[in-house]
Write a structure and sequence with these properties.
30% of the residues lie in helices and 20% in strands. By secondary structure, it is α+β, with helices and mostly antiparallel strands. Strands 1-2-3-4-5 form a 5-stranded antiparallel β-sheet. Helix 2 runs antiparallel to helix 3.
Amino acid sequence: MAKTDSFTFSTLPKNAEELHALPEADLSTPFKAAALTVLALIRYTESPNDGIAMLNSLKGPRELSEYEKQFLRDRLRGKEYVAMSYLGGTNPDNEYTPTTPYTISINDGPYSYTEEGYAKLYITSSGADSPRPITLRQKDDRWLLWEQMLLADIRKPKSQADW
């Protein structure tokens, strides 16, 4: 049976220090690491340097490669709404404006734990038809970001839609 874990944040962290001050920063579950990844991607849209520092801290000893940094630039430039679409209350009609407090819901599935030490979870974007995957890897007693597929195109905000 699939599990859903929801997280609530009163504010969005602005840097790695604020990210690590959150209770979820113990990274004791893959769900916590996935939720913090969304927060880091949101921060990237406002401050790429802070977002990269936050993502690097979630990746553990394996920092973002130059390819991954370029991928972030390409996928989020002019499409800041993609990262915001993972927060509760967002949709194309309201320009992906989240409700507060900020919420993120993450699901697993029947094949989430098929490879030992890895968890493939799913996060729903309010602008996509199906949840997007994120893979976390366990290192000791922490779960770290391994791979995220959260930045594929979604429906444009109403103000940018062609129709």
